[in-house]
Amino acid sequence: MADRNIETPSMSEVCARVRHLGYAASRRVRLYGEEFEVVSDPFPEADGVAVHVTTKKDSRIRVLQIPATVLQSVRGRVANAA
């Protein structure tokens, strides 16, 4: 079995790819049964990536973590593209 030197993508690469998936300012996403208006580009947060969002019901800006499954997919795609 051959060793594969898989490089971990940088956080900026992950954030850029998440942005291309639609988690970018002025976009709308539906997660957890709710529609969110994204008001920031993705940024590192704790052990993952998040965006600032609002909803129709609540105009206060809050932090929304990007689901881990999305981040795993993004990290795999960035590593495979290298």
Number of strands: 5
Look at the helices and sheets and give the structural class. Answer: alpha+beta
Number of helices: 2
Percentage of residues in DSSP E strands: 25-35%
Shape: elongated
Low-confidence stretches: none
Distance between the termini: 21 Å
Question: Major sheet, described briefly?
Answer: 5 strands, antiparallel
Mean pLDDT: 87
Oligomer category? single chain
Order of helices and strands: HEEEEEH
Question: Radius of gyration over alpha carbons?
Answer: 14 Å
Please explain how this structure is put together.
This protein has 82 residues and is α+β, with helices and mostly antiparallel strands. It is 29% helix and 28% strand. The protein is built from two helices and five strands. It has helices at 11-20, 68-81; strands spanning 28-31, 34-38, 43-45, 48-54, 62-65. Strands 1, 2, 3, 4 and 5 form a five-stranded antiparallel beta sheet that branches. The two termini are 21 Å apart. The model has no long low-confidence stretch (mean pLDDT 87).
